[in-house]
Amino acid sequence: MISPERSPSQSPRSPAAAAGAPFLSISVTDPVKMGTGVQAYISYRVITKTNLPEFEGPEKIVIRRYSDFEWLHDRLAERYKGIFIPPLPEKNAVEKFRFSKEFIELRRQALDMFVNRIASHPELKQSEVLRVFLQADEEKMDRARSYETGIFKRPADFLQMFKDVQSKVSDVVLGKEKPVEESTPEYEKLKNYIFELENHLAEAQKQAYRLVKRHRELGQSLAEFGKAIKLLGACEGDMMEKVFSEVGSKSEMLSIKLQREADNLLFNFEEPLKDYVRAVQSIKATMMDRANAFRQHFDLDQERKYKELNLEKLKFMNPEKYAEAESEFRELTADSEEATKKFEHIVRLMNEELARFQEQKTADIGLAFHEFAKGQAKLAKDIADAWRSILPKLEACLTS
């Protein structure tokens, strides 16, 4: 059994067209298996409704597969340093579960959540790559994905890769020490919080998984118990057969309720916790961008200070080389200032993003626990009512 899709409060949508307010609503629907064997994959219909003028029209429907969502995620991560890019569901899955109804629905919900979080973000929703993802036909989407992630990767990327490798080789050859890292009380507090949050969320998600498993196992046990009791009653005959048959029927009915609650726990409790485990990974990726930006800022600033001292010496010792060195110093100063601005920009964005993350996490996790408590309360009542209803008949058997 597959649960209905998650509550709209967990998948931000605001179609306020009736009021004339700007809106962007996206739905990931209709998963369909395409191809066979190892080439098989799931495609999705992505439906966009909007009144924003930068879009082609009020409604657009395109077909997308997982690699297209991955393309969108990676392009945003490249272009929006400092912003927590919403997480994608895991790419790999055990082959025998990859096309199960449950797995497909879980992935559909996660992809729907992913793209709607982008659409609700004040910066990301303005991205050109989002508009390409939501509007380009399949042929254009394939070309864009191949150009930026495949054999047609941009030359600038290869140049950056070469520079990164060259820098690493130089560090090894020259025996440079480990790069300096940012260390302020505020940033250390942030890092400690993120790592603790990751650990606690992962543990909570693991225990939620066990709860789902136990509900399913208990449900299966009750179903088997119900069949056994009915067979036992058939051997007894008369009044015992009727009472035992009712006990068996109640067990089978409760088995179905436990299976339904297991699905509810999976979709509305375990999966939201798992989604936030992935979200923390996105934050850690942003922290890595921040660390890289800090090192670039620090290294260029140190080099600028060294060049400045050297420039003063050349002014008196070697006037002929002074003009050339002064030109190099100006270029280095400009690069250093640009690196400092980039680092400060990432720090500012991260502070804003953390506030957004905290607010959204409180709402989403609070809703998940509300759904958990509500489901458990209803299940407990149904179980108690079911067993209580047959107590008089069992008592009658004892006195007969």
From TrEMBL:
Domain annotation PX: ranges: 22-141
SUPFAM superfamilies: BAR/IMD domain-like, PX domain
GO CC term (a single one): endosome
Highest taxon of source: Eukaryota
A Pfam family: PX
The protein's name: PX domain-containing protein
Lineage of producing organism: Eukaryota, Viridiplantae, Streptophyta, Embryophyta, Tracheophyta
